[in-house]
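Recall from the previous chapter that SMILES is a line notation for molecules. Here it describes zinc ion.
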Amino acid sequence: MVNNWFNIIQDNLLPPTCILCGQHGFDSQDICHACFIDLKKNLCCCSRCAKILKTTQLKPLLCGACISQTPAFDGTYAPFIYQDVLAYLVTTLKFNHQYKNARLLGYLLADYLQKTAELPEIIIPVPLHPQRFRERGFNQSIEIAKSLSRHLNIPIDTQSCIRKRNTLHQIDLPARQRQSNMKQAFKVKQPMKARHIAILDDVMTTGSTVNELAKVLKQSGVNRVDIWVCGRA
Ligand SMILES: [Zn+2]
Ligand SMILES: [Zn+2]
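With both inputs in hand, we obtain:
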């Protein structure tokens, strides 16, 4: 409730201003049209994991990794390529706790999903291990999910899944070690009632993290798991 009033007051009193260049925002958002155009769109990508493909074909294609081993998740929605403008928005959200970036990223993702995705029953933001959460004081995926949830009117579930192992930072590891680092990192506390779930993360690099979470959700009775991320690296 407080959050709603805060947003209403802010939307009415402060004109939307582009986070990136300070110009007037468009569509009541904190981004201007020129900076929105600068966001690199992920148009040619794997139909399963949204890995960026070097092709101009627009028909559905699978990447080599998805052909050799089918991921546990069913599809990935990643509207932007993780570089430049998007990388700035995500890293300043994560490390400088810029909440307005989360509101904008949630809006941009919602706008894309409304046009492209079959919407799930619940959204599960990728959980942080409690120790990591205490250190950082912040889970950027939850903050993006709050904005997304408001726009799409889909509830967030932060209770059913926990991170039981405090894994090493994926970014410090080579791709082949990322998969083993994530093994049994998550636990689903109770059987899931929802049949269709979307896992939300800020960025997808190799997909090992979301794949591990999708695996345990499927083992808990979920039929379909989609991955929603702002950007694909
Ligand atoms: Zn701008
Ligand atoms: Zn793929």
